[in-house]
Amino acid sequence: MTDEILRVENLHTTFTTSAGEVKAVDGVSFTVRRGEVLGIAGESGSGKSATMLSVMGLLGEAGNVSYDRLDFMGENLTPESVKAMRGDKIAMIFQDPMTSLNPVLSVGYQLEESLRRHNWQGNIRERVAEMMTKVGIVPAEERMRQYPYEFSGGQRQRLMIAMSILCGPELLIADEPTTALDVTVQAQILGLLREIRHSSGMSMILITHDLGVIAGEADRVIVMYGGRVMEEGTVLEIFKSPAHPYTRGLLRSVPKADGSRERLIPIDGQSPDLLNPPEGCPFVKRCNDAMRICLHRKPDAMTLSETHRYSCWKGVNV
After folding, report:
1. Is 4-89+169-311 CATH 3.40.50.300?
2. What's the angle, vertex CA 244, arms to CA 308 and CA 34, rounded to 5?
3. How far apart are CA 211 and CA 217, in angstroms?
4. What's the pLDDT at 216?
């Protein structure tokens, strides 16, 4: 039995707008193994969230999604089977906890609704109280009667985590789970996710632009830019031996944890226009190592090791 829980091959996602077709995800492929944390890093607009919303089938008619292969736990997924697994086998924590809860319904009702929709066999109220206690919202029975406005930002994020793990999913997708939270609360939320993952054995996809979070939590990393995967490897490979110019640029722009006063070097330029994406590498206009071929041909993936790959013409005999 393979330890692979999710496989995505050649995923494409576009959005039709009045200005034209936005190519948000362009040929993304990756796998997630049982019990591991896959980090997806990249700046805003790189396609991180669009990729996972496509996998979850949450774009509806807004997005046009196609792929060569989408397997979960050995089963080929269709739009119908993805819908059946959502919340049960695959769950997602969305970016903004401040707007993810209905303000006119008690939090207990909203968490209970998730279990009702999945025909939970057992005492629903007891299960909700158990999960709220697990994420540190106590006394659970009393707080279930309260409304979202009575909870802080960090507590709302804890409620979203409780909602996502109610049905005991095999895979949890956490989309920027620490956004808009102060540093202390960020550490608490990450610690809570780590504790839940270790106790349940579930896999996790962690989407973030914060490389510090990636370094501390992920086992493997995908670096995305312009809707494509620029580099993929273990945390050690990405942080110690980054191969793609974009990955190196990201790391140069992050403050060092050792307190050194080394000057941060930003990546000059702007993200590509996905209405009219470059014909070749999406990073070409911001890359100091760009060659003529980079303008006209998308690079194939270069293999550095069994786990480390990057998409760049540099180093290829062209």
Report:
1. yes
2. 35
3. 10
4. 92
- pTM attached to this predicted model: 0.92
Largest CA distance in the chain: 67
Neighbouring C-alpha atoms within 13 Å toward the C-beta of 318 = 15
Name the token pair of 243. 């191969």
CB-based contact 316:241 (threshold 8 Å): no
Res 318: pLDDT: 44
As a whole number of angstroms, the distance between CA 59 and CA 288 comes to 36
Point out the residues of the chain with pLDDT beneath 50: 1, 317-318
Give the pairing of strands 37-41 and 203-208: parallel
pLDDT reported for residue 255:
75
Calculate helix-pair angle for 107-117, 153-165, nearest 10 degrees.
20
Could you give the CA distance from residue 273 to residue 285 in angstroms, rounded to a whole number? 11
Nearest residue to 239 via CA among 207, 266, 213: 213
**% of the chain at pLDDT higher than 90:** 72
Q: Which helix (H) or strand (E) holds 196?
A: helix 183-200
d(CA 78, CA 272): 31
CA distances from 129 to 76, 88, 93, 105 (A): 35, 18, 19, 17
pLDDT of the residue at 2: 59
In the chain, domain spans = 4-89+169-311, 103-167
Write down the residue that tokens 């576009």 correspond to.
14
